[in-house]
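Deliverable D2.4 — example input (structure tokens):
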């Protein structure tokens, strides 16, 4: 995904980052040690080959001159905090952070390196796998919980039919677990089948209040997906066109029709 938020760096800068994170003895020769991972929508990410032939992943925050939405400010700090919390408090598989740098000495933004997960992206391989009253409803949320919010197929890494890693935690925060992206399909079928996600959360169906909250969250998500295509400078209209259709469907849930 092309986006102006992707803060790409030269091979020389990438080598300097490796030296700072792992020491000069791990700096590789040549310019073929870095491969951009293109599936992300916000930060630029590289798969780096170190001199000892091991692989790590480098993520770099957007350039400071690029305007982002309010909730995206400081997203990398959020991701680092989320990764630490998940590793300390749960058994959920997430990559270990090897080094983080907020000094801006080597580039104009925060960056960190983490373990590379040698697995398939579920969002890519999934098609090849077998199928194994509005204000009152918000008042029902009385205890905030840790929420990933961006937990969807393309942020899940799988190997041999097993989840081996969860990636991209920069949108994590404390709130209503029902806002998690996996619940979107309970209201908008275009997001896929939510059966497995509901089962994983220990739910079989949503109450009327939960249904209404999820409709509000769907509207919120769709508006973000539309707005971000403009400021990120997307080079095609695929996401906008898809999200614009979902906006019509989301508004219909509230009895609003075009």
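Example output (designed residues):
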């Amino acid at each position: 995904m092309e986006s102006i938020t992707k803060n790409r760096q030269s091979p020389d800068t990438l080598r300097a980052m490796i030296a700072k994170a792992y020491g000069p003895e791990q700096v590789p020769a040549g310019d073929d040690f870095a491969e951009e991972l293109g599936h992300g929508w916000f930060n630029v990410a590289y798969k780096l080959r170190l001199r000892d032939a091991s692989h790590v992943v480098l993520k770099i925050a957007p350039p400071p001159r690029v305007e982002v939405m309010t909730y995206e400010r400081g997203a990398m700090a959020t991701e680092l905090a989320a990764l630490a919390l998940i590793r300390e408090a749960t058994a959920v598989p997430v990559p270990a952070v090897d080094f983080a740098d907020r000094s801006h000495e080597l580039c104009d933004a925060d960056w960190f390196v983490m373990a590379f997960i040698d697995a398939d992206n579920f969002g890519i391989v999934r098609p090849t796998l077998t199928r194994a009253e509005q204000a009152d409803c918000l008042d029902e949320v009385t205890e905030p919980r840790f929420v990933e919010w961006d937990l969807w197929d393309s942020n899940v890494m799988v190997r041999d039919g097993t989840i081996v890693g969860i990636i991209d935690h920069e949108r994590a925060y404390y709130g209503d677990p029902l806002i998690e992206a996996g619940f979107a399909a309970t209201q908008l079928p275009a997001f896929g089948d939510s059966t497995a996600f509901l089962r994983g959360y220990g739910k079989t169906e949503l109450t009327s209040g939960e249904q209404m909250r999820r409709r509000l969250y769907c509207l919120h998500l769709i508006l973000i997906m539309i707005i971000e295509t403009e400021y990120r400078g997307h080079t095609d209209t695929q996401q906008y066109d898809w999200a614009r259709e979902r906006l019509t469907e989301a508004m219909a849930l509230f009895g609003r029709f075009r």
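The CA atoms of residues 7 and 63 lie 6 Å apart.
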